[in-house]
Amino acid sequence: YPTWKRTLARRARESQVKRFCRAQAIQRRLEEIEVTFRELEQQGIKLEKLLRDENESPADQQTRWTNQLLYLVQKKNNLMSEESDLMIAVQELKLEEKQCQLDQKLRSYMNKQETMKTPEDEKAEQDILKQLLEVVNKRNILIQMQEEKRLSEL
Rounded to an integer, what distance in angstroms lies between the CA atom of residue 144 and that of residue 152? Predict the structure, then answer.
């Protein structure tokens, strides 16, 4: 087993482990966001009830409640934006994983000597190349979406 093949296999495993760790971190953060959403919803409901029920409260108190409610809405919008970014990151990880798998398959076909390749092998190699291009294009679209989102936020 040549050294370069072992090196490629080791690098593939390392990148797979990194993707797995990133996926776990994203999943944890999505769960935290979900919990925070619920907490913000409860706080928002309480503030809305206070604003509706306490019409006799001083204007100063109602202004504070309104400001708190607006702050909660802003916080929730920020979390939704972060959640959207994380969902894009999840899609990117899936595409990265698929690209890695296709790349490994393609290498196995390309490592065969031309004289040993059957017409089926050549067709499979071409199909994998097409799939690889599709995955790269999808990743490019995701990156463009992230960039557009970042620019619109500025």
Answer: 12
